[in-house]
From TrEMBL:
<keyword id="KW-0312">Gluconeogenesis</keyword>
<comment type="similarity">
    <text>Belongs to the archaeal-type GPI family.</text>
</comment>
<dbReference type="InterPro" id="IPR051610">
    <property type="entry name" value="GPI/OXD"/>
</dbReference>
<dbReference type="GO" id="GO:0016853">
    <property type="term" value="F:isomerase activity"/>
</dbReference>
<feature type="domain" description="Glucose-6-phosphate isomerase prokaryote">
    <location>
        <begin position="32"/>
        <end position="174"/>
    </location>
</feature>
<dbReference type="InterPro" id="IPR014710">
    <property type="entry name" value="RmlC-like_jellyroll"/>
</dbReference>
<keyword id="KW-0324">Glycolysis</keyword>
<keyword id="KW-0413">Isomerase</keyword>
<dbReference type="InterPro" id="IPR011051">
    <property type="entry name" value="RmlC_Cupin_sf"/>
</dbReference>
<protein>
    <recommendedName>
        <fullName>glucose-6-phosphate isomerase</fullName>
        <ecNumber>5.3.1.9</ecNumber>
    </recommendedName>
</protein>
<dbReference type="InterPro" id="IPR010551">
    <property type="entry name" value="G6P_isomerase_prok"/>
</dbReference>
<keyword id="KW-0479">Metal-binding</keyword>
<dbReference type="Pfam" id="PF06560">
    <property type="entry name" value="GPI"/>
</dbReference>
<comment type="pathway">
    <text>Carbohydrate degradation; glycolysis; D-glyceraldehyde 3-phosphate and glycerone phosphate from D-glucose: step 2/4.</text>
</comment>
Length: 203
């Protein structure tokens, strides 16, 4: 099965291929290249150069066949490649759920972070294999790869939640995750910090 199942869905098991983050049976596969992330990195010039220089794949999302429809519980596995754009760690677009419902992420491989923003407050959860990050209703969420290898996580979410990517473009995400130029450590800076400027310490 490689397409979305049609309700009523019968009970079934999904085999997770840990090595390459595949699902069997498997549904849709989404590939996000750098060109799909317009307006999201602080340094727009660096983003444009990366697009011109091969437009690399930043992340992929492999979904199970469970469809995004009310009362179903879809799952997906996201793999974010390691990388930096002008010091900003590679990340997902981030989204808000138009129908405010919760979601869980489970870290599978690599080292990442879960950035949450409710429009006023921003929170950062360190994510590593075995860690469950809880996304409460009403919090926009973005995942970031802060390591040197692919960061992979499982998402489980209500089928009616939806994905509003425009919310993030309009409101931002409260914080940006950068690699500190001096120490190489994760540096979380206020969202409006101009590209290339660093603030010492963490919030
Ligand atoms: Fe979500």
């Amino acid at each position: 099965m490689s397409i979305s199942a049609t309700p009523p869905i019968q009970p079934f098991a999904i085999t997770f291929g840990a090595d390459n983050a595949t699902l069997e049976p498997q549904g849709q596969v989404l590939t996000r290249r750098m060109s799909d992330l317009e307006g999201l990195f602080a340094d727009a010039d660096a983003w444009a150069r990366a697009v011109a220089d091969g437009d690399p794949v930043v992340y992929t999302v492999v979904s199970s066949p469970v469809p995004e429809v009310p009362r179903e519980l879809p799952q997906s596995i996201t793999t974010i490649q390691p990388g930096l754009t002008a010091g900003e760690f590679w990340m997902t677009k981030g989204h808000q759920h138009p129908d405010p419902q919760g979601e869980i992420y489970l870290g599978l491989a690599g080292h990442g972070g879960l950035l949450l923003f409710d429009g006023e407050r921003a929170e950062w959860l360190d994510m590593s294999p075995g860690v469950i990050g809880y996304i409460p209703p009403g919090w926009a969420h973005r995942s970031v790869n802060v390591g040197d290898e692919p960061y992979k996580f499982l998402a489980v979410y209500p089928g009616s939640a939806g994905h509003d990517y425009g919310w993030v473009l309009e409101h931002g995400m409260g914080l940006r995750a950068r690699r500190a130029a001096d120490s190489g450590d994760l540096d979380l800076v206020p969202f409006g910090t101009p590209a290339g400027r660093h603030r010492t310490g963490k919030p």
